[in-house]
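Ticket #4471: structure export looks truncated?
Reporter: QA, pipeline team
Priority: medium

Steps to reproduce: submit the single chain below to the structure queue and open the exported record.
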Amino acid sequence: MKWGLIGASNIAASSMIGAFRSFGSDQVVSVLSSNAERGRAYATEHGIADAYADLDRMLADPALDAVYISTTNEKHFPQAMAAIRAGKHVLCEKPLAMNVADAVAMVHAAREAGLVFATNHHLRNAGSHQVIRDLVRAGRIGQVQSLRVFHAIYLRPQLQGWRIDNPMAGGGVVADIAVHDADTVRFHLDESPVDVVAMTAATGLGKGVEDNAMSIWRMPSGVQVFCHVSFTHPHAGSGLEIHGSDGSIIARNVMTQRPTGQVELRTKDGVEVVEFDPRNLYAHGVGMFREAVAGRGRPAADGEDGIRSLAVANAILAAGQTGQRMTVDYGGI
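Actual output as written to the record:
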């Protein structure tokens, strides 16, 4: 496949370019940046043939098969729609759009055009999360009763920028992190939250956006989910706990881009450390995307997954701002 990068981003440089190139003869052939000089420098640094400042010109390349969108959040919708009109498959960063209606429109447009559309929810691609899901599905902890996810980090200075001060670009910890947690919870429980309560705050980094949020979600089955996300916790670590009638899964340092962490199964028989495949999360996701383009299976996280995680994140924000319990609006999907 031949890929184009819409956005000369840090995540593309650190993770996605390598993931694309890990598949034999696949190539990253172009990059788009609103700053032409930066785009050329980025292309040179990463060995990319073409740099563009005009999206339509980039999409006019008939050799281009797919695009990876990693611009600021408010740009995802128009850029994805342009790529779909140009007949390109789309892998889009989360959240898909600023609102659920736009996300639904993107996914429907791709479906009608016969194109693969996926959301780059990387956590569900981790070997750790695969074994957690397998344990739950196998009934190793009995009936699930509650889930706790804590994903409180310190946002690195090079990643701060618009994430901590620009609500119009989709900044804030909920859009950046809680949206991933929503997808991960859905991946493990095979259901989506009905409603949420939440409190949000700016505790040190946030300037006009929240940098800390705690929320509780009610699932259709009755399972309760507690979620804590933050940009201001340098030593908190991350983790996931799923508690059931017959046992608990305790996973530490698994809410990360790296294939690290430890998964424990705790039952009446004691504590078992569960081994997992330390695979590259991003390469695994790209591999499933390629298979979907070839007509074999579906992406790791498709467009509907992206819509649902966005809807949960937006409900958390609304609940935090209003102090009211908010029903999650999935846009009719």
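Status: closed, not a bug. The export was complete when the record was re-opened. Leaving a note from the reviewer for reference: The CA atoms of residues 311 and 330 lie 6 Å apart.
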